[in-house]
Amino acid sequence: MIYRVGSIDPFEIDVRILVSTNQDIGEAEASKTFRRDLYYRLNEFTIRIPPLRDRKEDIPFLTNLFIEETNIELGKSISGLSKNAEEALLQFHWPGNVRQLKASIRRAVLLADVVIEEEHLDIVKQSANQGNVTFSSEGDAWLGRSLKEIVKENTQILEREVIQFMLNHTNGNKSKASRLLKIDYKTLYNKMKSLGIK
User: Fold this and answer.
1) Which of 1, 81, 187, 195 has its CA 20 to 30 A from that of 159?
2) 73 and 38, same structural domain?
3) In angstroms, how far is CA 94 from the centroid of its own chain?
4) β-strands 115-116, 80-81: how paired?
5) CB-count exposure of residue 136 (10 Å: 0-12, 13-18, 19+)
6) Backbone φ, ψ for residue 187 (5° rounding)
7) Confidence check: pLDDT of 20 > 80
8) What is the Cα–Cα distance from 89 to 123, expressed in whole angstroms?
9) Percentage of the chain lying above the pLDDT 70 cut
10) What is the CATH number for 117?
11) What would you report as the CA-atom Rg of the chain, rounded to the nearest whole angstrom?
């Protein structure tokens, strides 16, 4: 039974509440950083899903699904991955789990013409010897800079790359490019101006 905001009349609803987290809620409850009453209300049935790095057999299936979805959304026809690209996906550590994989595939579909190659992927390769992430040479340029500054700069680089791709794809037709990007014409025009795209 719930009450709508501002109402004095209760009414009955039939819902199932699912919550997800990458934190240990039991530990958080014990350390008093998570409300005990809420913990016991939610902790009726727990499904533990291993991180993507521990179930890499799912990567090919998920990759194909994300390629198919992005093809439909963007009107593209990417057929799949090259062997090297597939190997890079399987070797990567995936700290951002499935969301990171989806974002990487969406970006790769934007950049590829027929097949996703390794250079279309924005991931860094994992060191086979140490099990640590090995950053590209540009990582050295991150030293001494704030996260906000680095993210802003790299967001602009990606925006410029994607907008330029869409303009090339539409032979410079800004109206078509804005529709493919799902932004209005004026927003595209302003972004082109701020990013120095002619």
Assistant:
1) 81
2) no
3) 11
4) parallel
5) exposed
6) -60, -45
7) yes
8) 8
9) 89
10) 1.10.8.60
11) 22
Residues spanned by the domain of 8: 2-42
Predicted local confidence at residue 71, as pLDDT: 93
- Quote the tokens at residue 114: 């027929």
Whether residue 102 is contained in a domain is answered as: yes
Question: Over the stretch 85-144, which tens digit does the pLDDT of each residue have?
Answer: 999 999 888 878 898 899 999 999 998 999 999 989 987 443 333 344 444 434 455 666
Rounded to 5 degrees, φ, ψ at 35 are -60, 130
Residue 128: what pLDDT? Answer: 34
What's the DSSP call for residue 2?
E
Structure tokens at 78: 């990417």
Does residue 99 belong to any structural domain of this protein?
yes
Query: Looking at the 3D structure of the chain, how many domains does it have?
Result: 2
Amino acid letter, residue 168? N
Q: What is d(CA 62, CA 68) in angstroms, rounded to the nearest whole number?
A: 10
pLDDT at 13: 93
